[in-house]
Amino acid sequence: MMKSMPLPDSPRLMMALAGPAVGIISGIVIGVFAVIAGRLIRSGTPSVQRMSSEG
């Protein structure tokens, strides 16, 4: 199995390159889900009307 990997001689280097890439991609996916959830929650609740200080 090690022979078929892109860097068969250096598994540490491969993990050092793959780890941050996986972290960035999963962070983007979680962030997109959070934005979608925020929009769903915000659209589901009625907006609060602020009382104006004008007369």
Give a verbal description of the structure.
The chain is an all-alpha fold and 55 residues long. The chain is 62% helix and 0% strand. The protein has one helix and no strands. The chain has one helix at 11-44. The radius of gyration is 23 Å and the shape is rod-shaped. The chain starts with 10 loop residues before the first helix and ends in an 11-residue tail after the last helix.
Topology summary:
Layout: H1 11-44
What's the helical proportion of residues?
Answer: 55-70%
The SSE order reads H
Query: Taking all residues together, what is the mean pLDDT?
Result: 82
Q: Total number of helical segments?
A: 1
Radius of gyration of CA atoms, rounded to a whole number = 23 Å
* Gap from first CA to last CA: 77 Å
In short:
The chain is an all-alpha fold and 55 residues long.
Notable traits:
62% helix; single chain; mainly alpha; 1 helix; 55 residues; 0% strand
